[in-house]
Design goal:
alpha/beta; Isopropylmalate Dehydrogenase; binds nicotinamide-adenine-dinucleotide; binds 3-isopropylmalic acid; binds manganese (II) ion; IsoPropMal-DH-like_dom; metal-binding
C-alpha cells in the first residue's frame, strides 16, 4: 500500500526517537512491499525558532493531507519562561485540535524482564494489561484562560457530545478485551465530573455486556499502584489522563516504553511516545526509542490497517526486551542507535519467518 506519513521530530530527544520510529517503518515498507512517503515538518520549540510559530501554516497543511503522523516530543527549558507568550506545547495542542483526535489510547503491557525494574514488587504488577483512553481535545487544556498581575484562571468545560464520544470509544474497545470499563472523575467536587459520570452511566446502558465502574481520581492514583492488574479499560478526562498515564508507565519499568495513538478525527491519527523531550538526556543517544517504535506499530495498525506488520514490530520489540542490552532508563548501557538496530535485526528475522 501507499501512505504519506508526516514526521514531526520536535525538540530535545524528539528527533532521536522519531528517527528510530522512521527507521522501523522504512524497514516495514521494504520487507512487506509498501510505499511510505515520509515528510518532516516543524513543530514546537524548533518551529518557534525557525518560523516564530509552534505550528506553522506549512505544517498544518501537511497534517491535513497526511495519512498518519509520527511525533517525537516538544518543549524544553529554552522556551519554558512562565512569562513567554508563545510555547512549544501550544503547537501540540493546536495539532490535536486541528486533527480532531479526541481519543488518546495509551496501552500498558508488562514484559517480565522490564517488570523486574518496576519500583513495585513483582506480585503487585503480575498480570497487568490495561489501556487508558484519555480525552484529548477538551477540558481544562482548551478552556478560556486569563492572567493578570494578581490572578489567573483556566476554565474547564465539557459538552455531553465530547464526553459521550470518548466513552463510546472506551466501551467499544472493552468489547474486544476483558469487558470492563473504569471511568475516572472527581465527581465529589467538579461539575464537569458530575456530567461525565451521568453520561457514562447512560452510555453503559447500551453496553450491557460491559461492566462499568466509577472511580475518583485521587483514589485511582493509589489503586494503580496497589492493584493495577484489576483494570482493563480506564477512561478519563484530559488532565487526569495526562497525569495517571505517566504514573502508570512506571509499572512497566520506564516512561520511555509507553506508546500512544491519538485517533477519532476525520483525518490522520497521531502517534507519539507519552514521554516528553527529556532535556536532561537530549543529544546523548541515551533516550529509550521503544515507546516511539511501539507508537509506530500502533500507526501501522490503526491508521494503515496493517495488523500483521504491527504484530511483527511488536514481536521484535518483545525479543529486544527479553535479550538485548537496553538503554540506561532500563538499567542497560546501550545507545538509542544500538537499541534501534537490535529492533531492526529482530524485525528482519521475524519478517523472514512470517
Ligand atoms: P519528560 O517526559 O520529558 O521527562 C521525564 C523524565 O523521564 C526525565 O528524567 C527524562 O530523562 C525521562 N525520560 C523521558 N523519556 C525518556 C526516554 N525515551 N528514555 C529515557 N528516559 C526518558 O518530562 P519533563 O521533563 O517533565 O518535560 C520536559 C519537556 O517535555 C517539557 O517542556 C514538557 O512540556 C514536554 N513534554 C512534551 C510531551 C510531548 O511532546 N508529547 C510530553 C510530555 C512532556
Ligand atoms: C503529553 C504531554 C502534553 C499534554 C503536554 C506537552 C502539552 O504531557 O502528551 O502527555 O499534557 O498533553
Ligand atoms: Mn503528559
Amino acid at each position: 500500500m501507499k501512505a504519506s506519513i508526516v514526521v514531526l521530530p520536535g525538540d530535545g530527544i524528539g528527533p532521536e526517537v522519531a528517527s528510530a520510529g522512521v527507521a522501523v517503518l522504512r524497514q516495514v515498507a521494504q520487507r512487506f512491499g509498501h510505499e511510505f512517503a515520509f515528510t518532516e515538518h516543524a513543530i514546537g520549540g524548533d518551529a518557534i525558532d525557525r518560523f516564530g510559530d509552534p505550528l506553522p501554516p506549512e505544517t498544518r497543511e501537511a497534517l491535513l493531507a497526511a495519512d498518519a503522523v509520527l511525533l517525537g516530543a516538544v518543549g524544553g527549558p529554552k522556551w519554558s519562561d512562565p512569562n513567554a507568550s508563545i510555547r512549544p506545547e501550544q503547537g501540540l495542542l493546536a495539532m490535536r485540535k486541528l486533527l480532531g483526535v479526541f481519543a488518546n489510547v495509551r496501552p500498558l503491557k508488562l514484559h517480565p524482564r522490564t517488570a523486574a525494574l518496576s519500583p513495585l514488587k513483582a506480585e503487585r504488577t503480575k498480570g497487568v494489561d490495561l489501556v487508558f483512553i484519555r480525552e484529548l481535545t477538551g477540558g481544562i487544556y482548551f478552556g478560556a484562560k486569563t492572567r493578570s498581575d494578581t490572578d489567573a484562571t483556566d476554565e474547564c468545560r465539557y459538552s455531553v457530545e465530547e464526553i459521550e464520544r470518548v466513552l463510546r470509544h472506551a466501551f467499544d474497545l472493552a468489547r474486544s478485551r476483558r469487558r470492563k470499563v473504569t471511568s475516572v472523575d472527581k465527581a465529589n467536587v467538579l461539575e464537569t465530573s458530575r456530567l461525565w459520570r451521568a453520561v457514562a452511566t447512560r452510555v453503559a446502558a447500551d453496553y450491557p455486556d460491559v461492566e462499568l465502574e466509577h472511580q475518583l481520581v485521587d483514589s485511582m492514583a493509589m489503586h494503580l499502584l496497589t492493584r493495577p492488574a484489576d483494570y482493563d479499560v480506564i477512561v478519563t478526562e484530559n488532565m487526569f489522563g495526562d497525569i495517571l498515564t505517566d504514573e502508570a508507565s512506571v509499572l512497566a519499568g520506564s516512561l520511555g516504553l509507553s506508546p500512544s495513538a491519538s485517533i477519532g478525527g476525520p483525518g490522520a491519527g497521531v502517534y507519539e511516545p507519552i514521554h516528553g523531550s527529556a532535556p536532561d538526556i537530549a543529544g546523548q543517544s541515551l533516550a529509550n526509542p521503544l515507546g516511539t517504535i511501539l507508537s509506530a506499530a500502533m500507526l501501522l495498525r490503526h491508521s494503515l490497517g496493517l495488523a500483521q506488520e504491527a504484530a511483527v514490530v511488536e514481536a521484535a520489540v518483545d525479543q529486544v526486551l527479553e535479550h538485548a542490552n537496553l538503554t540506561r532508563d532500563l538499567g542497560g548501557s546501550a545507545t538509542t542507535h544500538a537499541v534501534t538496530r537490535a529492533v531492526l535485526d529482530a524485525f528482519t528475522a521475524k519478517a523472514e519467518a512470517a
